[in-house]
Amino acid sequence: MVLDHGHQHREEPFQLSSAGLSYDYVDAKTATSSGERLRLVVQAVDEITKGAGASFEAVGGPTLGADAIAVAVAMDLSKDWFFVRKEPKAHGKQKLIEGAELAPGISALVVDDVATTGKSILKALDALKALDVNVVMVIPLVDRGDLTRPKIEELGILYEPVITYRDLDIAPVGPKA
User: Fold this and answer.
1) Domain assignment present for 173
2) DSSP H helical segments within the chain, as ranges?
């Protein structure tokens, strides 16, 4: 699905938002832009969480990467959803986290579309930690390298991408690239 609907191999390397270089563009938002394909992602997330024994009350992650996946999982599994902004909203309640009101101790699943260095996921985890939310697991749709897993697992949080660069048969981004 990602290869067919969200991958492009380029002849010249381009810079990723993580500052790494790659010949392979992975656009998970386009890959999941149909209901049928998004439903497959929800099924994979459900299988991964059940296989890990990870139960959760709310699902979300860094906006914009997590948005479609979080809402789809929340709808299908009857959970609450939330999005973590990059910066607090400049007006109104100046919230960093939108959607469900996350109370201390609530269990949450963090999802994202693509993980490369884990920077946006870690920033979301910091925002959730500040609210004393119990993050039980992190699931990106695609992991582009070997940089994110050790950072998340160092925090004592389960980490399991739906697919990795190996599954896509593309070069990893990071030290092994």
Assistant:
1) no
2) 2-6, 28-31, 35-52, 67-77, 119-130, 148-154, 165-168
Q: What's 20's DSSP letter?
A: -
Please tell me the pTM assigned to this model: 0.95
Task: Answer yes or no: is 145 within a domain.
Answer: yes
The one-letter code for the residue type at 118 is: G
176 occurs within a structural domain: no
Domain count, the chain: 1
* Residue ranges making up the domain that contains 104: 2-168
CATH of the domain at 159: 3.40.50.2020
Residue 177 lies in a domain: no
pLDDT tens series, the chain, 177 aa: 999 999 999 999 888 877 778 999 999 999 999 999 999 999 999 999 999 999 999 999 999 999 999 999 999 999 999 999 998 877 777 899 999 999 999 999 999 999 999 999 999 999 999 999 999 999 999 999 999 999 999 999 999 999 999 999 999 987 544
Retrieve residue 145's tokens: 């390298």
